[in-house]
Amino acid sequence: MLLIVVPIFTLFGIFTSSFIFKKKLEEIRKELNLKDKMEAYRSALIIKLALIEVPSFFNSYCLSINRHHYFHSIDSFIDYCFFYLQTDKSKIHN
Length: 94
Prior knowledge:
mainly alpha
């Protein structure tokens, strides 16, 4: 059962976080002040990363219960997503 639930929950968290982050970015572009934009961007990024972190914790819990190698691969995928989502200057300027 967990072999089906964990990847679905992980993908749902990743896609939902991306969707919400894009909606927040659309709202941020309407603001005029740079300080307000940076604060709004930071809060949107925190929400995005938190929505990915929840499936990561759930996966870690399932890994501690089962010790199945399948959960290691999902954990590696989540780690790759965090590495890919790192913020750098080019992402902030765009």
